Structure prediction request, 746 residues.
Amino acid sequence: MLFSPCRAEATAAASRRFAAALVAAAGIAVLLMTAPGAHAARPWMDASRTPQDRAKLALAAMTQSEKLAIVHGDFPCAGDAGDGTVSGIPRLGIPGLSIVGGDVGVSNVCNRSALRLLAPWLPPAEATELPAPVARAASWDPSVSAKAGGVIGRETRALGYNVSLSGMANIVRDPRFGRSFETLGEDPYLSGRMVTSEAGAVGDQRVVNGLKHFAANNNDATRFTSSSDLDERTLREIYLPAFETAVKNTEIGAVMCSYNRVNSVHACEHRHLLTDILKNSWDFHGWVMSDWILGTSSTIASANNGLDQEQPAGFFFGAPLALAVTFGLVPRSRLDNMVLRTLREMFAFGIVDDPAENDGIDAAAGASEARQIAERSAVLLKNQGDVLPLDASTTRTIAVIGGNADGSSDGRATTSLIPNPEPLPQRAPTGYPSGGGSSLVWPARVVTPLAGISARAPGASVTYDDGTDPARAASLAARSDVAIVFARDTQAEGTDRANLTLDDGAEALISSVAAANSRTIVVLETGGPVTMPWLTRVPAVLEAWYPGESAGRAIARLLFGDVNPSGRLPVTFPASEADLPTAGSANQWPGVNNKIAYREGVFVGYRWYDERGITPLFPFGYGLSYGGSFDYSALSVVATAGGGADVSFRVRNSGTRRASEVPQVYAELPDPSSTVTQPPRALAQFTKLTLDPGASTDVHLTLDARAFQYWDVRRNDWALAPGSYSVAVGASSSDIRLRQGFVPAA
Ligand code: BGC
Prediction:
């Protein structure tokens, strides 16, 4: 056919008409979609309804087998399946759940674990490795937790998942707990504040957030078999409040029940915990999922007592649950409630309306946020003679020693990567300052301490020694202006620590190096407290925790004073293991015959040291800054009608540098009786502020009634003891600066 201009014009006009018709049709379609009645066929897709109503409508449309498919995971997982999946219902437009770990950043058990052994060619699933939760707690700054939660939520969604397994709210009962690094420390109030802001921020990214491990999961080596035996008051005052705070103050999608038993009853079939307290008393309307594989141990008891979803498979909640429902052993109404709770959160967090896509993470943004969090989490423990901060213009030779600070041990430049294609439970090889187990992140970009320090001091000669030969390291230190020794511990899920000693013979290394160079600085990269028999030999110690992928940049900026350290300990550092609340009693730690007696009761952490008059190495709430010195004055405590108090005081920076302070408010309570004794003080509020030298600020904080109450087991309720109360304000649990007597309103 010959080409004709007329024909070409006619064709173009026809195309334009066709395009216009398409646009019009699309417009009508959009109008129809948004017109009233557009969701007539699928009313649960109407986003103007409440999540609860939408869940009810979807539930009403589901078949029995669709309901049964939602109450358990689809194990085995593979490849990038995260930590587990639950089938969706495409017929109803309801996506499946894709669940991934998130304590330290987005981890990915399926990608890293046993299945990876079978498919080693799979690329590792990379994400931002944040400082560990215990580090974030050391910031004593809920905005830091929120920043971490924001990264976790954003990357969970960016990698295509819609449920984050984060929000660990277990208490450090004993610092030998192998998962201390994943906790938010030893105090229920601090943990509650931090986990609430973190979980809220995860949820803000339209990812279902969670809390775990409910409850009293405070050791790991025997978690599958042991019973945490504790009285109701201890449970309510120490081990539940962090969960309670989060459930009552932010939308929580899922609570994971723990592996352990509580007073002999499996946590995942514990009616008192799951139904009476969590769902009925706290009004939690999300779903309870079991911890992975061994978390569920029955069908009927678990379903009837409050477990809503078995993970990651359906050993008990697959065919056995179908049978149990058929025979009336689990009521249909209970199955409906299990499904309703799950669907409700899927609507509430937007994962039905806005399904997550695997778009990839913004690694540069994550690295920068990881650095900022690490900088605000490090705790300066000692700085004798102001040896820190270092002056890059006068420090000519720097020895960097030990701790795999050059990242060479695994063949990839990282201080915190565990090349870990192991089945669970994974142990962190001694090489890396990062905790092992399900929270392990394969970091997207890593800056080692050696790289960070070298970049920060370009004019200096920076030399690394791996520290395996203390004499060789000491000789390098002797030739250097300053020696920086990196030291670490080993923590991993599935294990507990035998002691609080540093790894790799670091104690002897530090002593040798310190003997050779009086300007020896120790940087600890630990998941919790360690003992420090060498402390008097060194002038400076910085606790950097497991600092995440941007460790090197953050540590260099802290050591050289670009950032003034501002962290405070979220956990007491004991002088010796003999001082621990559980010391000398195998019944208390690690337990005997699978029973762990929480005989220390509410005297956990600083509550124990205060009660017994034991001086710890470093108390809860402690931390220094460069040139910061703060005066406290003008305390006023006024009772509020609801039983709480308004507390005001003034803080002034009387030091020489702009620095941060964390004023801590403690409630000092009378004993209800000779048999019900209260700890000398309990954290009730805190804030973090930054002041220039000479500047002061008035602090106003509100304490709620709970700050002054104890759990009365006879009345099964919170109560106020008769007697005298005071409010104490200080810079740590052991450094009380102001105190005022006070009578709470009954
Ligand atoms: C851990 C949980 C984790 C789960 C899934 C379990 O072993 O206890 O914290 O979320 O695995 O990875």
Summary: The two ends are 98 Å apart (CA to CA). The pocket of beta-D-glucopyranose is lined by residues 83, 101, 109, 165, 212-213, 291-292, 438 (CB under 6 Å). Residues 1-34, 410-431 have pLDDT under 50 and may be disordered. The longest strand covers residues 630-639.
